[in-house]
Each structure stands twice: as C-alpha cells, then as structure tokens.
Amino acid sequence: MGKAVETDKQPIIQVTDLHKYFSTLHVLKGITTEVYRGEVVSIMGPSGSGKSTFLRCLNRLEEPTSGSIKIDGEEIVDHKVDINMIRRDIGMVFQDYNLFPHLSVIQNVTLAPVHVRGTKYKDAEEIGMKLLERVGVGEKAKEFPSNLSGGQQQRVAIARSLAMHPKIMFFDEPTSALDPEMIREVLDVMRDLAESGMTMVVVSHELGFIREASSRIFVLENGSIIEEGDPDAIFNNAQQERTKKFLSMII
Amino acid sequence: MLSTEIRQWGTRFGHLPWYRRYEFLFPALVVLLVAVGFFMPPEGRPEQFFDGATILLAFVSFLALVLIVITDREKPVLLKRAASLSLIALFFLLFYRYSGTQWDRVRHQFFNLQALEGVWPMYLTGLRFTLQLSVVAALASIGLGLVLGILRSLRNPVLELFIGFYIDFFRAMPLIVSMVVVFYALPFLGINLSAFWSAATSLILMNSAFQAEIFRAGIESIPKRQIEAAKALGLGPMKTMRLVVLPQATRIILPPLSNNLVSLVKDTAVAYVITYPELLTQARHAVIWKRNPTPLIFSMFIYLATLLPLTRYTRFLEKRSKRWVKR
Ligand SMILES: Nc1ncnc2c1ncn2[C@@H]1O[C@H](COP(=O)(O)OP(=O)(O)OP(=O)(O)O)[C@@H](O)[C@H]1O
Ligand SMILES: [Mg+2]
C-alpha cells in the first residue's frame, strides 16, 4: 500500500512557518513541512480547514502573510522574485477545470508553451497531441471545451498543465465536480502520472486513490497540519484523536 | 365537395365573434372603399366641417378594421402585416391629399435635381473628410479607451480617482462645447490646432471616456478563475489580458462598442461649427451656392446610406451576443 520513495534527497518544496490571514481571519497557522521529489502527497481535512489556501499559497495565487516557501531551493515569498518563472514549473489543476472557452482543446494545451516558453507552435502542437492522447482525449483536439464532458475537460486541463513540463503538479479536488464514472477516468490519468514519477500534491476526498497512490498524507485541520504519515500510518494507526474522528466521518 | 368545405369553414371560424369573421370583414372593407370613392371631398385642405368629418370617419373606420385584424391571434401574420402597411399608406395618402401642403413647392425647394448639379463632387469631398475624421477618432479613442478601461479594472484607488474624474468629466461635457473650446479658446494659449485635430481631439476625449466604461465592464465580466488558470500556467498580466481576458470579453464589448462608433460617425457632423469641411459643411456651402436647400436634404440621405448599414451591423452583433449568453 502507498508509494515508496527514497527520502534522502533535497526537498523540492520546503515550507517554514507559513501563515495566511484573510484580513482578520487566520486561515493558515504556521505550517512547516516539506515535499520530496517524486512524492505524491495527499492533503485531507474537513471543509474550511485551509487545504485550498495552502495549495494556492505554494504558487502564490494567494499571497502568504508570513513564512517561507522554497521551491527547488529558491525562496518564492519575496516580491523581487519573478513569480511567473516559478509558476511555469508548477502545474495546477482546479476543481472546475477552468479551460479557456474561446480556444479549442489543442489551443488550450499549446497556449502556455508558445507564449510563456516560446516554443514553436508546430512543436507545441506535436507535444500537445501526444499529451492529449496520453490522457485519452486525442480525438477531441479540434473541439471547443463546451462540447466535452466534465471528465474530458478535466483530462484536457491536466494535459494543459503537463504541456509546460512542470516539476510539480498541484491538484485541488480535481474530481469533486464530476459524476462517478468520470471520476475514474480522471483518477486513472492521475495514477498513471504518479507512477511516471511526477511530484504531486493532491487535495482530494477519494480515499481509494489516496490509499493506493500517495506516499504521504497530510491531515489539515483548522489551519495546521495535525498529523502526517504514510497511508498505513494514517488510516490504520492514527495517533491523533482528531484524525481518527475525521476519518471515522468520511469512511 | 364544395358544400362540405363551406361547412368546414363554418365550423372552423364559428367560435369567433361576428366582427372577427371574414364574412363581416371582407364586405365591410368593400363597402368602405366604395363609400370612400363616392363621398371623399376634393383635394386640398377641407373647408367645410362635413368634409373634415368625412375624412376622419373614413380613416377611423379603416383603423377599426385594421385593429380587428391585428389583435386577432388566429389571423395569418402576412394579412396582419398587409393591414398595418395599408393603414400607413392610407395615412400618407390622406395627408398628401388633404394637408394643404403645396407639393410642387416642396418638390421645387427640397427635391430640385437641378440644384444638385455640380454638388456631387462636393459631397464626395465632404464624405471623405467625414470618414477621415471618423477613422482617426475611432482608432485613437479605442486605443485610449482600452488603456483606460484596463487601468480602471485594476481597481487601484489612486488610478480610480484620476480615471474616474476623466470619465465623468468628458461624459458630461457636451461635444460641441469641447470642440468650440479647443478650436476657439486654446489659440489664446498659443495652442493652435487645425479644425481636423480640434474635432478629432474632442471626439477622442469624449468617446474614449464612454469606451473605457465599455471595456471595463467587458473585462470584469470574465470570471476570476479564468485569470487564475492563466496565471498558474505562468502567463504574465499583459499576456493574460491579451490572450485570455480580452478575447473572451469581446462578445460583451462588441455590441456597445459598435453602438458607440456609430454615434462617433454621426457626431463628426458637429465639426461643422468649427468649419471642418465635412459632409454637412459641404452641403451648407452648396445651399448658399445654389440658393436652394436641396443639397442639405440630400446630405441626409448620404448620412443615412453611410450609417444604416453600420446600425444594422450593430443590431446583428447584439443579437449574436444574446444568443451566446443563452448557451
Ligand atoms: N479569498 C478569501 N477571502 C476571505 N476568506 C477566504 C478566502 N478564501 C478562503 N477563505 C476562508 O478561508 C478558510 C479556508 O478556506 P479554504 O478554501 O482553504 O478551505 P478548504 O479546506 O479548501 O475547504 P473545502 O474543502 O471546502 O474546499 C475558509 O474559512 C474560507 O471561508
Ligand atoms: Mg478547497
């Protein structure tokens, strides 16, 4: 059970004492943790515990109030750093896909490589087609997003992120807006990605996926990581009463 | 065969009140027309009370018949259209015959083709100047309006103050006033703008103020999630605007923007007051030259011919954007 990773490497994400306030609301209360290359970290926790906010701080879609975040050794909580250079190496998949509705599927996938990395369109298209085939929507390349099912759109969104060759992929409840049969097709793509060695941080409620695919689990409650460990430790051997209570509610 | 058809006819319209049935409407129309043929007074403004009453009665009777037809849900649309059109035609016919207008005078003063001889080249010149001013003012105001709209959508309080003031000021200022001020007052400060640039400046200032609001509304209609998705891919703010926000905002922006541009073309005629040689100015010169107002009348048709296609296009854009919203 779970994914084995050697951890004697340098962490690819290193978070130290991260705080986030929304005006007076204290949402993240001093998070310190790290994620290693090739790991698949799942974040669990009750609604409103700050899972999305934590993830969005890691690529500064939300500005952290204080603390330090190092991506691949580089401090990013600093207004001098060009955040776009950091973001191009971090893929992010949202709950509601957020494909660009005015662009066809293949244009969605090639937009960032062409305009951010400066890849030639022909090359970006070739790579994009391979990615679309890999996530199983190759035949939809010329369609517009509104003509695709939710599951297909989410797989396109994954391909769109992968097209930038990211070092890390973030997933914020990628299957929460989907019908059950579509959840599977998206989770299959994510499992495939995990096996390929991608570093992933996943906020999810899909217990099956969390158990099988993740190397570690963070349990977030009320803005703090109250427990972390491999799936076996969390699901069968939780140390914290609050973790046990949370798990008993969702299983 | 025929008798069953007649019987069916009876059952088909049997539920209608008597005055809505063709058996009444058709004879009534014939009677009305015959009566009109016999009793209508001679051409010219009616002198006697009886004549005026006859005309009024004829018109009101016809109006009643038309109303019966167009308020009936079961009458075919084509018939309703024909009824409304013939009512309008009747109105103009009555007006033509009985208003007492001296039509030959109208024809001589307003539609005197002789007074148009040699005027067409002037129209052409005028139209060229009108279009020149329109194109320059339109392009510049779109550019300025876009920049102001983007800046305003940032919701920066300081920018908001300045741009808000600019927008309010030039939306409230009458175009003719700013044009006259730029052309006749600024020279006292040593700023001498030609009639063209005075007109263009005023048009640009006013229309960019209106357009800034149009662009801002379009930009703000794009959900924040779209912008976040673009940011997460590493696109900077300029590229996000150009590649993600503006292309999606055009469907919101285009209808009101094209409306504004139609107004802009119309407003170039205001430059008449500062002697810019556009279409209206040329028509006015032609009137003085020919001592006949026909050139002015025909300039209306030239404005219409230029602007009607534009307004039609605007309406098409509006319809299209509504259809998209529904989806
Ligand atoms: N932009 C914001 N402005 C103000 N408060 C916010 C904002 N975003 C989130 N919050 C608040 O921060 C807290 C944490 O929100 P967050 O979305 O991170 O929770 P979550 O763990 O992802 O919950 P869920 O499982 O429902 O998605 C919530 O109380 C939420 O109301
Ligand atoms: Mg969330």
Instruction: Spell out the helices and strands of chain B N to C.
Output: HHHHHHHHHHHHH
Mean pLDDT of chain B: 91
Structural class of chain B: mainly alpha
Sheet with most strands: strand arrangement of chain A: 6-7-8-3-9-10
Summed up, the domain count of chain B is: 2
Distance between the termini of chain B: 51 Å
- What does the oligomeric state look like here? heterodimer
The largest sheet of chain A, given as strand count, sense and whether it forms a barrel, is:
6 strands, mixed
Strand content of chain B: under 5%
CATH class of the largest domain in chain B: Mainly Alpha
Query: Over the alpha carbons, how many angstroms does the gyration radius of chain A reach?
Result: 18 Å
CATH superfamily of the largest domain in chain B, by name, is MetI-like
Q: Major sheet of chain B: size, sense and barrel closure?
A: none
| Helical content band of chain B | over 70%
CATH fold type of the largest domain in chain B? MetI-like fold
Structural class of chain A, by secondary structure, is alpha/beta
Number of strands of chain B: 0
Write down the overall geometry of chain A.
globular
Radius of gyration of chain B: 29 Å
Would you give an account of this structure?
The complex is a heterodimer of chains A (251) and B (327). Chain A is an alpha/beta fold and 251 residues long. Chain A has nine helices and ten strands. In chain A, helix 3 (105-117) crosses helix 4. The longest helix of chain A is centred in the C-terminal third of the chain and has 16 residues, at 180-195. Chain B has two domains: 2-101; 114-321, MetI-like (MetI-like fold), CATH 1.10.3720. Chain B is 78% helix and 0% strand. Chain B has helices at residues 2-13, 22-39, 49-70, 77-98, 103-110, 120-153, 157-172, 175-185, 195-220, 224-232, 237-267, 279-290, 294-326. In chain B, helix 6 packs antiparallel against helix 12 (279-290), helix 9 (195-220) packs across helix 11 (237-267) and helix 11 (237-267) packs antiparallel against helix 13. The interface between A and B is medium-sized, with 25 and 17 residues. The structure holds adenosine-5'-triphosphate (ATP) and magnesium ion. Adenosine-5'-triphosphate is lined by residues 22, 25, 27, 45, 47-53 of chain A.
